[in-house]
Amino acid sequence: MTKRRIPGGSRLWLGAAAMLVLLALPFYLDRFWLQSGLFAMAAAIGAIGLNMLTGATGQLSLGHAFFLAVGAYAYCALSGTGDDGLTGLGLPTLVAMAGAVLVAGAAGGLLSPIAGRLRGAYLGIATLALIFIGQHVLFNARDLTGGYNGRDVPALNVFGLRFDDEELNVLGIPFQSMEKLWYAGLVLLALSAVFAHGVLRDRPGRAMNAIRDHRIAAGVMGVPVARLRAQVFVLSSMYAGLAGVLLAMVFQRTVPEYFGFVLSLEYLAMIVIGGLGSVEGAVLGAAFVSLMPQLLDRYSDALPLVSAPGTGGVAPGEASRYLYGAAVVAVVLFLPGGLTRLRIGGLLQKARGPRRPVGEPS
Fold first, then answer.
1. What rounded mean pLDDT belongs to the chain?
2. When comparing pLDDT for 308 and 334, which is higher?
């Protein structure tokens, strides 16, 4: 029996309807939900980059958080004025954003020769070292990063429109930083998703999948394995840098502790839960993993066993890790394709086991 597919025209209408809903949300949601949505957008951008590297090319990276930190702090250094005593070049914020993405790509380029030749656990260990190096630099390069206290993030300024808490009335509704950043995040996520979708659907994407499925056969067919691996690693680093810039704008202050090993593990959980090698899967997995701590923290009083830290229950952050850890196990066991392949009926059938023909003894 063939699976029913949604026609292309229907998908277009569904996408248009979803975009209209997203555009209207700042008129109805409060600051908490908008901030949570922005966290999910930033996570989705970073997860798309990691999914191209790990899901489509088969290269394991445990250092994704390092490149997010590079993007976040590079933006602060390029756009900062130096009034706070920290390094700042005072560039326009749009230029600083583009520069931060390029700096993250350059950082990935420094490791790309290694990424082009290593694979599997060996590349994972090599990229894991970036986390420890990055944490040491972030805590000790105080003139650049602000050390343990971090540094303030300059507000985005696009042609005179500042994305800060200065109130802007739109149709009688006050728009502050979260409302303004919501639309900037939508634009960045849409551009990132469209570009990645084009890469994965075109010849580079087929070559990446060939490397993932059979490296030797891909080389025999003429695919430049080492060079393409290195290029995808740089591209993934640039996506992470852009995600770091958006995260910094949402937080409004960067702190080194956030960009640790746990963040890299969360990104791996995102692409596994959502679906490896898929842009849609990266977005779904990022929404699941990034929104879970926010929702548990918001509704901790109404949930069993979940409470504020120090009150005897499980802290929302820990509970969220238990939940998406369980989700990873469930996806591996019952839904190898991730959330993008979810079919409720098929999932229940797989959980029950194979169906026996009528009349066959049990």
1. 83
2. 334
Which residue spans within 190-327 are E strands per DSSP?
Answer: 253-254
Helix (H, G, I), strand (E, B) or coil at 334: helix
Residue 172 carries which DSSP code? T
Picking from 289, 199, 184, 291, the residue whose alpha carbon sits closest to that of residue 236 is 199
CA–CA gap between residue 59 and residue 150 (Å, rounded)? 32
Q: What gap in Å lies between CA 295 and CA 156, rounded to an integer?
A: 27
pLDDT the model gives residue 172: 66
CA dist 98 and 75 (Å) reads 9
Residue 89 has pLDDT above 60, yes or no: yes
pLDDT at 82: 79
**Residue 358: its pLDDT value, please?**
45
Q: What's the angle, vertex CA 140, arms to CA 137 and CA 146, rounded to 5? A: 100
Residue 70 has pLDDT above 70, yes or no: yes
Question: Which tokens belong to 327?
Answer: 């989700």
d(CA 342, CA 74): 39
DSSP string covering 154-166: PPPEETTEE-SSS
CA 217 to chain centre: 31
- One-letter amino acid at 206 equals R
Checking if the pLDDT of 170 tops 80, the result is: no
Strand (E) positions, 185-259? 253-254
H or E stretch covering 343: none
Rounded Cα gap, residues 53 and 64, in angstroms: 11
Instruction: Say if CB 279 and CB 286 are below 8 A apart.
Output: no
CA angle 144, 148, 154 (to 5 degrees): 50
Per-residue confidence at 344, pLDDT binned at 50, 70, 90? Answer: very low
Tell me the sheet residues that pair with 254: 151
Tell me which amino acid residue 180 is.
Answer: K
Task: State the amino acid at position 25 in one-letter form.
Answer: L
Which secondary structure element, helix H or strand E, spans residue 151, and what is its range? strand 151-152
Q: What is the DSSP letter of 90?
A: -
Quick one: angle between helices 225-251 and 203-213, nearest 10?
110
Name residue 55's amino acid. Answer: G
Report the predicted TM-score, pTM, of the whole model to 2 decimal places.
0.86
CA dist 285 to 56, 206, 242, 282, 292, Å?
Answer: 16, 23, 18, 5, 11
The upper half-sphere exposure of residue 326, i.e. CA atoms within 13 Å in the direction of its Cβ, equals 6
